[in-house]
Design goal:
Elements lengths: L10 H33 L16 H30 L6 E8 L2 E5 L5 E3 L1 E5 L4 E7 L4 E5 L4 E5 L5 E5 L5 E7 L11 E7 L1 H8 L4 H8 L3 H11 L25 E3 L5 E3 L2 H9 L26 H13 L2
Parallel strand pairs: 1-5, 4-10
Antiparallel strand pairs: 1-2, 2-3, 5-8, 6-7, 6-9, 9-10, 11-12
Helix pairs in contact: 1-2, 5-7
The chain binds heme C and copper (II) ion.
The site of heme C has 26 residues, from helix 6.
Length: about 325
């Protein structure tokens, strides 16, 4: 039986072993204490009104025992924890650095060669990775259960995570700091791939990803991007108002802006809304909404934007 998530980094077995140790100590202690408690209740039950409690002041042997054993256990746990924490917070040599930016309610990743991804982190297997993380707005927390790593992201300050993935596959990334309305949509994936595949991906020949879409209708691709790129956090497709306007029947509709002007929602309008969501006091904001939509410049390719537009057209 598997009690814990997949173990996919060098830390995972270490964290699991100390968790196991602490669990065993706790379980043994609770059984011991509970058993003694029940046993003594019966053994020392007052049997007649004349029974007198013996005036025992202390027992040096017992007292030493129950002081020394727990102290040793605590020291062992501390040393284990300290050694692992030290490894966890030490920057590995030749670490591959990836910049992580969290914002309500998505993750973006920037790689050393200028590549950027959105809600999808790509890392090579068996290579020390260092994430340099920051938040654009409120507190977030980066958590990959399979790697057993978690760290808060804080505005105006960098925080870090180091890990070495040991298993190929796709694992979940969660935000574990409540960060507002769509916090629960702030999920992403980390793809651990072989060094060869990584080099291919890095050099832009990510044939796999593009091919997955090769014989899919653009509107279907758009539908997938709607959730994988995090639009779902702010835009509904059923007409419900969220942080952003619903996409229901958006295409061809007259949009009214806070500055009193208006525009027809055609292909160009939608593309511009995705690439240049305007900010500032004189911004052309859709009436009733705030300037919170992040720009997807560099994060969505032209063909992806086209796919999203095609998808929006299908939401009647
Ligand atoms: C953090 C919330 C948020 C996320 C995430 C977000 N948007 Fe938006 N979006 C908004 C808000 C708020 C508006 C309305 C204000 C404005 O005009 O910028 C908006 C407006 C739009 C519009 C114009 C809609 C209209 O009714 O006129 C389009 C198109 C759009 N977003 C597309 C996208 C796409 C595509 C994604 C995902 C790749 C996305 N948005 C992700 C908040 C968000
Ligand atoms: Cu968050």
């Amino acid at each position: 039986m598997n009690w814990l998530p997949t173990s996919a980094s060098t830390f995972a077995p270490q964290v699991d072993s100390i968790l196991f140790l602490v669990t065993i100590i706790s379980v043994v202690s609770i059984i011991l204490v509970s058993f003694m408690l029940i046993y003594f209740v019966f053994k020392y039950k007052r049997k007649s009104v004349n029974d007198q409690t013996p005036a025992i002041t202390h027992d040096s042997f017992l007292e030493t025992l129950w002081t020394v054993i727990p102290t040793i256990l605590c020291i062992v746990i501390f040393i284990y924890g300290y050694v692992y924490y030290d490894r966890y917070t030490t920057t590995p040599k030749d670490a591959y650095e990836i910049n992580v930016t969290a914002r309500r309610w998505s993750w973006s990743f920037a790689y050393p060669n200028g590549k950027k991804t959105f809600n999808e982190l790509y890392v090579p297997i068996n290579k020390p990775i260092r994430l340099v993380m920051q938040s654009d707005d409120v507190l977030h927390s980066f958590f990959v259960p399979a790697f057993r790593v978690k760290q808060d992201l804080i505005g105006n300050r960098y925080t870090f995570i180091n890990f070495t993935p040991t298993k190929e596959g796709v694992f979940d990334i969660y935000c574990t700091e409540y960060c507002g309305l769509s916090h629960s949509d702030m999920i992403a994936k980390v793809h651990v791939v072989s060094e060869f595949e990584y080099a291919k991906w890095e050099s832009g020949e990510e044939a796999k990803v593009e091919n997955a879409y090769a014989d899919m209708a653009p509107s279907k691709v758009g539908e997938q991007l709607y959730s994988s790129k995090g639009c779902v956090a702010c835009h509904s497709i059923d007409g419900a108002n969220g942080v952003g306007p619903s996409w229901k029947a958006l295409y061809g509709k007259k949009r009214e802006f806070t500055d009193g002007s208006s525009e027809l929602a055609d292909e160009n309008y939608i593309k511009n809304s995705i690439l240049y969501p305007v900010k500032g006091p004189d911004a052309k904001l859709v009436k009733g909404y705030g300037p919170v939509m992040p720009s997807y410049q560099g994060l969505l390719s032209d063909s992806e934007i086209t796919a999203i537009i095609e998808y929006i057209k299908t939401i009647k």
